[in-house]
Design a protein that fits this description.
heterodimer; A: alpha/beta; 35% helix; B: 13 helices; 0% strand; binds adenosine-5'-triphosphate; binds magnesium ion
Chain lengths: 283, 280
Amino acid sequence: MEERDARPAAPPYIQVHGITKRFPAALKGQALVTVLDQVETSIARGEFVVLIGPSGCGKSTLLRIMNGLIPADEGRVTIDGATVQGPAGDRGMVFQSFNLFPWRTALQNVAFGLELHGVGSQERDGRARRLLAAMGLGGFENYYPRQLSGGMQQRVGLARALAIDPEILFMDEPFGSLDAQTKLLMQDELETIVQRHKRTVVFVTHDMEEAVFLADRILIMSQRPAKIIEEVRVDLPRPRMDHMRAAPEFGELKAHIWNQVRTAQEFRPTIGAVDHPTAATHG
Amino acid sequence: MVDARALSQTRRGASASALGTAGRLWRYKWIQRGVVWGIIVVAWQTFGLIRGPFYFPTFTDTILGFVRLVVEGDLIVMAASLQQLLVGFALAVVIGIPVGLILGGSRSGEAVLGHYINAWYVTSKEALLPLMIILLGVGFEYRVGIVFAFSALYVIVNVATGMRDVSPSLIETARSFGASRRQVIVKIALPSVVPFMFAGIRLGYGFAIKGMVIAELWVLGGTGGLLADLALQRELDRYFAIALIIALVGVAGSSIIRTLERHITPWGAGAMRTTERRAV
Ligand SMILES: Nc1ncnc2c1ncn2[C@@H]1O[C@H](COP(=O)(O)OP(=O)(O)OP(=O)(O)O)[C@@H](O)[C@H]1O
Ligand SMILES: [Mg+2]
């Protein structure tokens, strides 16, 4: 309880200042599409933040910008006071579409980040092996991605991000392809790992139960052009245990989030998402 | 497994068993091939007998022609051609790969080389023959040059395509782990190019053989010269034997390349299919 009360006082670790992102429309000559519109938020060190919002609203885009993979059109992201200029080795990303390297075995995929950082092969393989086992993939070390199911590939992608033991984990629907049982197991596993190492996590999901189970705070985004329209604090004690899912507060929170998300689905600041009709002629 | 099933089959009457055995044997690749070859040889022999040796040698004539090639030392002529083929093709691979990497991987590479490669691509390579003779004579260098001109292009174009085809999301993934530009090239671009490289090498090999034969036919030397002489003299038995040897060199070479590919790219579709087959 004390831990929770102390949290708002902690200085922001990740700060998102007025992030706006526009993409060119599919057809030449059409106006730009504004995906993110002046997104503001800040995240404390060690906080687990979940992003929820309608499909196509810009959650993946926001993660990419926060990690420095793509630039924003307006605004900036700072981590620990420093403006993010590009990706860095101490931030891990789990991609929505797995993005495993097809020419690397599961083990080599997981060891990728360590390899970049010059960790010796003994240590690298040991770590990768342990993580794969933790993901329930022991025995699949030498399989190529093509030989693994979607859910297995997704867990390899998760292990790959965890392997570098990053300060910040950006996770884009990391359990989206898992069956219900494996999903619960992986949520427990993630909770254990994150609590043990006190990592900061930004996590995208469409699953409200998952959001409530994992999050300290849930940010709800609107339709495109997306803003964060609602923020829900989850005050369940840590570490989260499976039995909490049955608690009345858990159900209430879930219902509350669902209500908010439903509003977000309907919340359209402008009809269509196309604005800046003049921008295309300049760009 | 097979024995047990064969046993249970015998209990069901002889004719069913014979059919079953044939059916089961048919599943073996070599049996299938053997049967097809058998049919071809019989058809060939019959056709040869009907047409007569002046137009079409029989299978047995061709075998005898092969024996004559060996005895009369014509194989040495072919060995020289093979050497030219290998040197020209090796050059095509060794030069083609880096040129393809530059062409596909850098914008200035494309700007500088693109036009020439394109011109080379759309021009008939045969049109180069007289020029090559003027430049290089009719000997070893000329033939190597023609083999190179015929095959290098396919290596270059395929490698360049592979380089342009590197998945942007995999590059982004590598960058998300803090990969430098150099690391992206070494750890992402190069491995994704390898399958394209092999496609280019396999294609290039076929054209290298074509180049070898055409170069020699043009100057009536080496194996090509031999082919022309034999055809004019209507010594079709040896002519056919040579044609078969060339085909064999082609098949052997490309299966060596395929085997290499399976070993070097164990993640590729070809390698996966063999593992599956082995597992069954
Ligand atoms: N590279 C790009 N070029 C053009 N448009 C893009 C690009 N990337 C994303 N978009 C657009 O930005 C919008 C947001 O995409 P994003 O992938 O961030 O959505 P999301 O919230 O992650 O959706 P989902 O929940 O379905 O994963 C989409 O409308 C998409 O078409
Ligand atoms: Mg997404």
